Amino acid sequence: MAYKRVLLKLSGEMFAGKYESGIDPELVTWFAKEVKKAADNGTEIVIMVGGGNFVRGAQIAGHGIRRVTGDHMGMLATMINALAVTDIFEANNVKTRCLSNIFADQVAEKFVYRLANKHLEKGRVVIAAGGIGRPYLTTDTAAVSLALEMDCEIVLKATKVDGVYDKDPNKHDDAKRYETLDFQHAVENPHIKVMDKAAMGLAMEQGMKLVIFNPMEEGAIANLVAGDSIGTTIS
Ligand code: UDP
Q1: How far is the CA of 62 from the centre of ligand 1 (A)?
Q2: Does the C-beta of 192 come closer than 6 Å to ligand 1?
Q3: Is the CB of 74 inside a 6 Å radius of any atom of ligand 1?
Q4: 132-157 pLDDT, tens digit each
Q5: In whole angstroms, what is the distance from residue 53 CA to residue 82 CA?
Q6: pLDDT, tens digit, 9 for 90 and up, residues 24-38
Q7: CA angle, 43 as apex, 159 and 38 as ends, to 5°?
């Protein structure tokens, strides 16, 4: 059965593509086309964008930069991505609105529940910039929080691997991919690093289903929102 509303989490790493940092417009164009297929089928889509291709708060803090400032820098990095994603999506005929949890009136509207809801009901993709606007969080946790706020039925987390494995598939030939996994196992297993533990904890507590999948497989997003089982489902 197709989902009515989903949250898609795209990390900064995804936007960098062939580059080490920054934004690869070709890759964002790919995402625009993939998201369009899913949106054209009638599913409402909220996208939480990461910022790790520019700055991660925990990594940049130190040498005089406070952690809170580092996190502010990280949230600004997500805004840079969100602006690029919004333009590239629109250039590819995806109706898109960027709403920001860091208030910067010149560049994006404020993220307000009712406004976001209205855009979604009108079939526009909503890009959330600035995480949820508070420090000491990642965009994974922000993604689960926003999915709950916006009544999304599932969080689709795009990663470079096609799901969760029992050990690192790049290092072990016999690594096995889980089709389904329960939260308890995902939270307790230190080898499972596809999503941060705070995000997983919140999802577990609130019963928000997660899917870890590779968005570079053509049609993956559209097939997922149509209800196909792809990647690893954590529930
Ligand atoms: N961040 C934050 N609050 C939020 C979301 C993000 O403080 O609600 C900061 C945090 O420093 C994080 C950075 O923004 O490291 C960029 O996000 P993230 O590391 O999640 O990006 P990704 O790894 O998904 O590219």
Answers
A1: 17
A2: no
A3: yes
A4: 999 999 999 999 999 999 999 999 99
A5: 12
A6: 999 999 999 999 999
A7: 55
Adjacent-strand bridge partners of 9: 48, 157
Closest-CA residue, ligand 1 atom 21, reads 50
Q: How confident is the model at residue 186 (pLDDT cuts 50, 70, 90)?
A: very high
User: In one letter, which amino acid is 124?
Assistant: R
Closest CA to 146 of 221, 54, 49, 215: 49
| pTM greater than 0.85 | yes
Whether 27 contacts 176, CB under 8 Å: no
154 neighbors 6 (Cβ within 8 angstroms): yes
Task: Please identify which residue in the block is written with the tokens 């596809």.
Answer: 194
Homologous superfamily of domain range 5-234:
Acetylglutamate kinase-like (3.40.1160.10)
- Pick from 10, 76, 78 the residue to mutate for probing ligand 1's pocket: most ligand atoms within 8 Å of its CB: 78
**68, 8 contact by CB (below 8 A):** no
The answer to whether the CB of 96 falls within 8 A of the CB of 68 is no
Q: CB of 28 within 8 A of CB of 91? A: no
Q: β-strands 209-213, 232-234: how paired?
A: antiparallel
- In short, whether 139's Cβ falls inside 6 Å of ligand 1 is yes
Name the strand (E) or helix (H) holding 79.
Answer: helix 67-91
Quote the DSSP letter at residue 216: T
